[in-house]
Specification:
about 280 residues; six-stranded parallel beta sheet; four-stranded antiparallel beta sheet; binds adenosine monophosphate
Length: about 280
């Protein structure tokens, strides 16, 4: 016998929800990591956390057309299935769900999506279809998979918050696990979209990150309009928003203060980046 033969339990891949559901029935429960592929160290940290639970880990890769505001952005979203498969197999993920668009959208979910009013702030102001699209797909995934745990990154803070509110409001028995933002050594948060940045863009993104961090730790108060100008000077092409939110009550604050978190969305060469610090 090959001694490690029995450790090499192959990851099972499912392309339709019915066969996935049949498989899940025989498990003690599922720990679920939804992604849009283009896997990087941010995704990997979520998967590693999920692997530490007593449940089977299921990763999905689905580029959800409904959460893109522009067709062009959906079409150009980075996809690399071959590389993704290799990463997931190396991590010894139990299940991969690779649904088609119709597999996700041709059934009627029992729960109606709950959209908290925070969905109209920040990214919600600039990308109207985004959060309704995200909540639509997550609501469907939750009904198909009924995971015990759902792993989500704080990099997409608003998304995390809104999914949490939805599960509470609809009394869904899934625990949302918040995962910290993983960054490159230059400070820039890992994102599939970073593949579309050139070296110069990356340097600007790095400068912006360290600038925001400095503001956060050195100043008691700061004016957002001044900050906007400074970020343009650092090389951002356009800013959707730089806003301060009090993280105790999720109220927007005019000035930066001790309880604030800085939320930013800006463009580098048509690539839209978000972060919160
Ligand atoms: P995406 O594939 O971009 O939809 O992301 C899938 C999940 O990975 C989401 O819960 C994201 O918040 C999370 N994620 C993306 N980038 C990072 C990162 N740099 N650090 C931690 N989590 C991340």
């Amino acid at each position: 016998y090959n001694s490690h033969y029995h450790c090499l339990k192959e990851m099972k891949i499912f392309k339709d929800r019915k066969s996935l559901q049949r498989e899940i029935l025989s498990t003690k429960g599922i720990a679920f990591v939804p992604t849009m592929g283009g896997l990087h160290k941010g995704h990997i940290s979520l998967i590693k956390k999920s692997k530490k639970t007593k449940f089977k880990t299921l990763v999905s890769i689905f580029v959800n057309p409904k959460q893109f505001n522009e067709k062009k952005d959906f079409k150009s979203y980075p996809r690399n299935q071959k590389k993704d498969l290799k990463i997931l197999k190396n991590l010894k993920v139990d299940y991969l769900y690779l649904p088609s668009i119709s597999d996700i959208y041709t059934f009627k979910p029992k729960n109606k999506v709950f959209l908290d009013k925070f969905s109209r702030q920040l990214c919600g102001k600039y990308r109207k279809d985004h959060f309704p699209g995200v909540l639509n797909v997550i609501n469907r995934f939750l009904e198909i998979i009924k995971p015990k745990k759902l792993f989500m990154g704080k990099k997409d803070f608003q998304q995390l918050y809104l999914v949490k509110k939805h599960t509470i409001k609809r009394k869904i028995n899934t625990k949302i696990i918040e995962c910290k933002t993983i960054r490159e050594t230059n400070g820039v948060a890992f994102s599939s979209r970073n593949l579309r940045l050139n070296l110069k863009d990356k340097k600007v993104a790095s400068k912006i990150y360290f600038y925001l961090k400095k503001i956060k730790y050195k100043f008691k108060y700061y004016d957002p309009n001044l900050l906007k100008k400074e970020i343009i000077n650092l090389g951002a092409d356009k800013i959707d928003y730089v806003e301060f939110y009090n993280i105790k009550n999720f109220k927007k604050s005019k000035k930066f203060s001790r309880n604030s978190r800085i939320f930013i969305a800006y463009f580098l060469n048509k690539v839209r980046l978000i972060d919160n610090i």
